[in-house]
Amino acid sequence: MSLNDEERKTMVFLQMEKAKRFLEQAEMVRDMQQWDLAANRYYYACFHAVQALFIHNKLASKTHSGMLGQFGLHFIKTGIIEDRLGGFLTRMEQLREKGDYNCVFSISEDELSTIVKPAHELVKVIAELVNNIEP
User: Fold this and answer.
1) Do 119 and 92 form a contact (C-beta atoms < 8 A)?
2) For the purposes of burial, counting CB atoms within 10 Å of the CB of 103, is it exposed (0-12), middle (13-18) or buried (19 or more)?
């Protein structure tokens, strides 16, 4: 995607707004004890924050696994983002995939409780990295 600086800034802002909205949705469905759906929303909040980071840095990926690889290469291995948050994102993607596609698996309240704080933290860290300023 070839964007000029203003378009890039707008796209970063929109991705971060979606990330924040998905965090709010995750909290709402968590309160309703819908653990699978909450995990999905937490993951996608992180996903959209990472997309904002990619756009901000002129990077892109076409798949979830590609996103994880690019994130690890450009932001975890370089020390820009803490390693534990990279591991968290990988675990989140696996958990989300199991919750979404495996009809035998259901995410438990205990499993979900381990992802709430790091999801908020990752979105916050990325917001700070992209200097989330309105376009």
Assistant:
1) yes
2) exposed
